[in-house]
Specification:
Length: 230
């Protein structure tokens, strides 16, 4: 006979344990149930790793919709309602694991579309919501980008070019020689003997033009000097 040690339980926990044993019809003694529960808890903690490591969430995966442990599934048909509950990783109906489609078909004895016939209430919620609406919300959230798009950064400003060193004299392009500037001859001026530059006199063009040497030149052609001095 193994020795036993007593532990104190809160009244709420003890009443919940007694109600569960009575409703489930289990013949186990409350002390044995507590001992079994502690052993299961130790096994789960060892399997999950250290005590501070959070355990993976339990629940039933229905396509893209995840139903956490403790979720309720309701089927309404001809004014009557039937319920199934997620326990751990399974959906339970009348003490047996089932699926949403099987639950809807078994209750109505017809072929049903579970997405449009079942409503779900997850833990912590007060209202029921149709399964197809929850699936639509999940699909919309998956299509949204996880992070806002970043605006393209402006191109970097090019650095100013470094000044180029002058080329050596033997590599530089030759500079064409410039014609010397015209030097005006200087001449004395009557203003106190000050010498000022005087522009050169333009030479008169004395080469006769065509027809100037013909006999009828004075009859039909005139020059300024002929008119002025005749």
């Amino acid at each position: 006979m193994s020795a036993r040690t007593s532990f104190n339980l809160s009244p709420h926990t003890l009443l919940a344990l007694m109600d569960y044993l009575r409703d489930s019809g289990a013949a186990a003694d409350p002390a044995e149930a507590v001992d079994t529960a502690v052993l299961h808890w130790l096994a789960a903690m060892k399997q999950g790793g250290a005590e501070n490591t959070p355990a993976a969430p339990r629940g039933y995966q229905w396509k893209s919709l995840f139903l956490p442990d403790g979720s309720w599934v309701r089927m309404a048909y001809r004014g009557d309602h039937e319920y199934a509950r997620v326990e751990g990783d399974r959906l339970m109906y009348r003490g047996r694991p089932t699926s949403p489609n099987r639950f809807a078909n078994e209750f109505t004895d017809t072929v049903r579309n579970a997405w449009y016939d079942l409503s779900i209430r997850m833990p912590g919620e007060k209202n029921w919501k149709m399964a197809y609406q929850r699936r639509k919300e999940i699909d919309l959230a998956a299509r949204q980008p996880t992070a806002p798009a970043r605006e393209p950064s402006p191109p970097p400003t090019p650095a100013p070019a470094a000044p180029q060193a002058p080329l050596p004299a033997h590599l530089a392009a030759p500079v064409p020689p410039q014609p010397p500037a015209y030097q005006y001859p200087s001449a004395p001026h009557c203003d106190g003997g000050t010498v000022i530059p005087v522009p050169p006199m333009l030479q008169r063009h004395v080469v006769p033009g065509p027809g100037w040497t013909e006999p009828e030149r004075r009859k039909y052609r005139y020059r300024i000097e002929d008119v002025a001095f005749d």
